[in-house]
Amino acid sequence: MRLKYLPLAALLALIGCVPPPNTGEPTPPASAGLTPISLSALPGWADDNIADALTTFVRGCKAILVMPADTALGASNNGYIQQIAGQAGLWQPACNAAEAVPPNDDAAARTFFTNNFNAYQISNHALITGYFEPQYPGSKNLKPGFTVPLYAKPADPALASLSRADIDHGALNRKTPVTAYLADPVDAFMLQIQGSGRILLQNGTTLRVGFDGQNGQPYVPIGHIMVQQGDIPADQVSFQTISAWLKANPAQATGIMEQNTRYVFIKPLGPLPDNLGAPGSLGVPVTAGRSLAVDRADIPLGAPVFLSTTEPTSGNPLNRLTIAQDTGGGIHGTDAADLFFGSGPDAEASAGHMMQQGSLFILLPKSPTAPTS
Questions:
Q1: Residue spans of the chain under pLDDT 50
Q2: If you ran DSSP here, which 8-state letter would residue 143 be given?
Q3: Which of 46, 79, 121, 239 is the Cys-Cys partner for 35 at CB 3.0 to 4.6 Å?
Q4: What share of the chain is helix, strand, coil (3-state, %, to 5)?
Q5: How far apart are CA 123 and CA 305, in angstroms?
Q6: What pLDDT does 77 receive?
Q7: Is 199 part of a structural domain of the chain?
Q8: What is the CATH number of the domain that holds 141?
Q9: Model pTM?
């Protein structure tokens, strides 16, 4: 980026003449559900790699900076957050400043977040889950061994609103493009739940696929159904146990999966860096360990969210600055969030067992447009 195109705030930050942060924001009303906290008091803030988080934030900013200023990013359920952070224009000053921060400089990254954001606790009993990009063998063409279609979204709205059972029984056959074929219906179901994946083709290449919309039907978590039926003990529910049970019980599997009437359509994606996930709801590729899926009605896309929880297997503290860059059908309110773990066996193991209690803190921009009363 050439200096003559840098906004004034970004240029001042780059040369070290950073103006003092705006501290004129009022205390949020009690109805906002926000408890102020200093960034330095966030649990584990001093030990996190904040420069790594800034890289993910800047990646999201690339989408925000090209949006019209009045583009809605979320927080329609919280008038205070929506007023100071619900539109792209309210984030663009911080995004411009972020692009001027030297990469991989943790001290500079900490200074950036401290100067540009106020932190607030939004939940102290959140359920933190995980998601990942599964990898499955597959084919672009129907052939023996690969017969389970992953459909792209139909152009006809009537077809796009069909239930999972209708689609599984062939209602879209020859009526909409097929992105790929998998070997097992359970794998297809699980890829839809994750929202993206990597199809390992027989010629040795990998087809990246991702979210192409959904049918508008209710999302029903089948893990809850399986616990109620006594299929899996409540304390053993995970991606792995659900998948294994369904594959071991094919006669019952179809009926269980069809109780989740929501069907997610899948499309092929263009070339992506191997170390990044598919684009999330913000429109940028998600980052392992740093991108968070949220309910955008409560947390605007692009917002930094600090989470404090524990590792799913070791129980060790997991305190990390993440960026809200995705959404999920099963995420509602500020008491739930879904951390992206990446792709591969390690990511699957971590994400599949991630179901931890924790706290969430949102970082909101210090902005001259903040409400004054």
A1: 1-24, 369-373
A2: B
A3: 121
A4: 30, 30, 40
A5: 11
A6: 84
A7: yes
A8: 2.40.240.50
A9: 0.84
